[in-house]
Amino acid sequence: MTEACELSAVDARRLIGAKRLAPSELVESCIARIEAVDPAVNAMVARDFDRARVAARAADDAVARGDALGPLHGLPIGVKDLEETAGLRTTFGSTLFRDNVPAADQHSIAALRAAGAIVLGKTNTPEFGAGANTRNAVYGATGNPFDPTKSAAGSSGGSAVALATGMVPLATGSDTGGSLRNPAAFCGIVGFRPTPGFVPNEKRGLGWYPLPVLGPMARNVADLALMASVMASDDGADPLASTIAGREVRRPGDVFPPAECDLSRLRAAFTADFGFAPTERHIASVFAEKTALFRGAFARTEDATPDCAGTDETFEILRAVGFLSAHLAKVRDRPDAVGPNVRANVDEGLRYTAADVARAMTVQTTLYRRWQAFFTRFDVIITPSITISPRSWRELYPAEIDGTPTRSYFHWLALAYAVTVVGHPALSLPMGTDRHGMPFGVQIVGPRGGDAQVLAVAAALERFAAGDARLARPVPDLGALRVAAPIAGMEGFLGFG
Q: At the fourth CATH level, which superfamily is domain 4-489?
């Protein structure tokens, strides 16, 4: 019998509205799942169970009274520990903020609560989101739910693991170089990087800086679209949340439910590496096998890629600019309290000149225009979500792929940051497992501003894959996690290795 915590968000919300499932029942089921399996994976690191129970009882009463219910009424969520939550510890994965308890929710969390969501706790993240291996010196490492000795990726690794194991039906994430998409792929769930500004972020220090975005994570596309419909708005505190005076630009109905999409009318480009990403041979081979199963669903397919020449250096420079803005003072004043990834980015940023930044922004514009020309020929691009199969979380980052050294600690994320640089929306959709039995995901990239189109294509592919064990979303062995030794006892658990 399905436990309440395993219900999809859409189904749980429908049952709550029909008075067939009490929010308090759902919250207790999620708490029980956290307590049973989290010791093995360390995903839900700061817990707010007492306040969640109070909120759940209030949600029960609202249903009983026949009140108008929000779209997320009674649904428990996990919040990435980079997002500020009122009255709940928010550390950003940094010892500098070990005891930080914000007085107020940031906009994205306030919007979710206003829609009826109930925050169960904070999910683990690397320090300040730096790096795609979820480990830090405050809470330690998060293990992959399919093998806790392996990485869950990141930086939204805790959210991805919480979803994969049924701790919550919805969770928040953020993405600069793939931090929504990479852990989604490693853990077998769905992560969506929307267009910059789609989810307003008033906490971004560089207001017109489009690399970092906030976004939703879920176990299926419909759940993710439901969450996206609540998170999207035109809040003026974020200059990237473009608006037209007097008009509602981003409407919930634009993305939920996802539009019916006829794949047979779409032109799809397939690429394993965007022409430059250091994709593992194993991953490229699995990608070819998986996509061969659904290529025929499209009107026309071609192995093709936009010209991405210059993407590596452009991302390296622009990423470093963001780190200088956010973390220069920390590295300068408290270098002993800052981890190696943050220090590396700040040190790199200090080596660049204004001319370097100007060159990177010029190349970024050139890349953007190449992509626009490419999308006159295609409606969607499909790639692997990530360049490698999960490795040990003790490896701070992959220093080599197939024997070739990587350029930086984030070079292995090139499939994701190719999309980040040009600002297109993209989603990671689970597509079975690779040859090591670990989750495998494909990245669906849409045209400029094509957030709704990406969700529609993902929903159509999800339906196409239904019932095919080769493409179905993998599910971790919960029984094994329940009896597994706590990850906290593993060598190297706390810190950076």
A: Amidase signature (AS) domain (3.90.1300.10)
